[in-house]
């Protein structure tokens, strides 16, 4: 393991502990600020995510957004590949995807222009520390190469870190939404 990999592993461990504490303190379902942000983009194709473990849930905001335009969730096709996004709606049939995240049973792929991105840690410069697979970094790089794509990190405020070990391939977030407010970059 390189020095940077060790730094990222240590940062993830600390951030997971902060996220779990925030989640256990009753932070489940606080998507109010996310709903506010998405209301400014009615009809724009958006991708959220199906929360796993102690991730903050974007589902209330996704349920509101689906009334105005397509909403999807990420699907992992394989290691080293960008994500694809399958159309989701409340109550649709789901199956378990890689890493335990639920995905629609029927594939109906589209390209979102807004990605609600889960994360382990973030900083006040738009830096994001994910799970280490690089899926969102590859995906954002691919989407941004063809058109403007808004990346919104969604997290508990407790997941903020002062200094994240980032590298050139880490795609920046345009905005971070927490239960306490909205940061834009």
Automatic annotation (TrEMBL):
Keywords: ATP-binding, Ligase, Magnesium, Metal-binding, Nucleotide-binding. GO terms for biological process: folic acid-containing compound biosynthetic process; tetrahydrofolate interconversion. Transmembrane segments: none annotated. This is 5-formyltetrahydrofolate cyclo-ligase. Its EC number is 6.3.3.2. Its cofactor is Mg(2+). Belongs to the 5-formyltetrahydrofolate cyclo-ligase family. NCBIfam families: MTHFS_bact. InterPro entries: FTHF_cligase, FTHF_cligase-like_sf, NagB/RpiA_transferase-like. GO terms for molecular function: 5-formyltetrahydrofolate cyclo-ligase activity; ATP binding; metal ion binding. It catalyses: (6S)-5-formyl-5,6,7,8-tetrahydrofolate + ATP = (6R)-5,10-methenyltetrahydrofolate + ADP + phosphate.
């Amino acid at each position: 393991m390189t020095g940077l990999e060790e730094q990222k592993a240590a940062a993830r461990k600390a951030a997971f502990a902060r996220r779990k504490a925030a989640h256990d303190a009753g932070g489940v379902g606080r998507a109010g600020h996310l709903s506010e942000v998405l209301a400014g983009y009615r009809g724009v194709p958006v991708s959220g995510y199906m929360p796993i473990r102690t991730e903050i849930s974007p589902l209330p905001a996704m349920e509101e957004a689906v009334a105005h335009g397509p909403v999807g969730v990420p699907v992992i096709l394989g290691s080293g590949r960008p994500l694809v996004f399958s159309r989701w709606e409340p109550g649709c049939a789901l199956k378990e995807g890689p890493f335990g995240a639920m995905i629609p049973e029927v594939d109906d792929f589209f390209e979102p222009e807004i990605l609600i991105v889960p994360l382990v840690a973030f900083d006040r410069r738009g830096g994001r520390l994910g799970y280490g697979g690089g899926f969102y970094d590859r995906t954002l790089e691919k989407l941004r190469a063809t058109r403007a794509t808004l990346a919104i990190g969604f997290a508990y405020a407790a997941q903020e870190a002062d200094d994240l070990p980032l590298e050139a391939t880490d795609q920046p977030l345009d905005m971070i939404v927490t239960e306490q407010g909205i940061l834009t970059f």
